[in-house]
Amino acid sequence: METVAVFGGASPGFPSSLQRRRSCSSLPSAHHKPNLRAHHHHQLSAFPSSLHLFSYFPARPHARTLSKPRIFLPHLVASLEQVDETYIMVKPDGVQRGLVGEIISRFEKKGFKLTGLKLFQCPQDLAEEHYKDLKGKSFFPKLIDYIVSGPVVCMAWEGVGVVAAARKLIGATNPLQAEPGTIRGDLAVQTGRNVVHGSDSPENGKREIALWFKEGELCQWTPVQAPWLRE
Ligand code: DAT
Ligand code: MG
Q1: Entry pTM
Q2: Mean pLDDT for the chain?
Q3: Which family does it belong to (predicted)?
Q4: 20-25-28 Cα angle (round to 5)
Q5: Cβ-count burial of 188 within 10 angstroms (0-12 exposed, 13-18 middle, 19+ buried)?
Q6: What's the 198 CA to ligand 1 centre distance in angstroms?
């Protein structure tokens, strides 16, 4: 519910994928599930309280800087903590070449949260809707044929800054221009076979997740490693 509060309402036309989620827990009872996010200030001495971020305590109370306009800290902290979601897809060439595990692990190791995952044969109309902004391009028909040519692996990932960071992990559209260390830079040689898709904005992240995932296919959960990834 924290993330819903940060996002506000659903985007027009599509229900927010966050609202479509049910809570997934393998534990016997939700009451026994440790909510480290909510209580770590009090329970884990290794993680100092961040309450100071919400208050203004001048280090030098008599300094002239006191008269300067103050930054509204709660607002600043809220924007730094914005949780985004992105749609990542292993394209048919990535599946055929046995790169599914390698590609998933790049996002997993980075520390983002997987909230949706499925192997899926994409129908023509969905591929066209997904790439509708490229409809006028000469390569559009070939692009659609490629995306529907075999199963893809659909993923929803969540995290602060996940959209831009995922694009960096993926690398440039043309794999020959993608930096070594990126997925495309390491694993592909041609734009028409660039193994992976990643949303290009938070808005498109929401739009694409709503497009590729159905009600009940997304999970909201709290990874046990959460307090080891973010202070
Ligand atoms: P990206 O996938 O990096 O977001 P994009 O959104 O511009 O790139 O294009 C979507 C896909 O379309 C891209 O991954 C591969 C294909 N594509 C883009 N430009 C192309 C081109 N000039 N020739 C052939 N395919 C192209
Ligand atoms: Mg794109």
Answers
A1: 0.74
A2: 79
A3: Belongs to the NDK family.
A4: 140
A5: buried
A6: 11
Q: Which residues surround ligand 2, an ion (CB under 5 A)?
A: 200
How many angstroms is it from 9 CA to the middle of ligand 2?
Answer: 25
Compute the distance from residue 201 Cα to the ligand 1 centre, in Å: 15
- Binding residue ranges: 91, 139, 167, 173, 184, 194
The helix/strand/coil state of 206 is: helix
The binding-site residues of ligand 1, defined as CB within 6 angstroms of any ligand atom, are: 134, 139, 143, 173, 191-192, 194, 197, 200
> Exposed/middle/buried for 191, CB within 10 Å: 0-12, 13-18, 19+?
middle
For residue 16, give the 3-state DSSP assignment. coil
Instruction: Single out the residue of 222, 201, 196, 214 nearest to residue 85, CA to CA.
Output: 201
Q: How does DSSP classify residue 173?
A: S
Of 143, 147, 149, the one to substitute when testing ligand 1's pocket (max ligand atoms within 8 A of C-beta) is: 143
Q: Put the strands of the sheet holding 152-160 in their side by side order.
A: 113-120, 152-160, 83-90, 196-198
Tell me which residue has tokens 């260390």.
181
What is the C-alpha separation between 32 and 37, in angstroms, rounded? 14
CA distance 210 to 54: 34
**166 pLDDT more than 70:** yes
Q: How many residues does the chain have?
A: 231
**For the chain, which domains are there?**
79-221 (3.30.70.141)
What token pair was written down for 48? 């100092």
Q: Helix axis angle, 202-212 relative to 162-170, nearest 10°?
A: 80
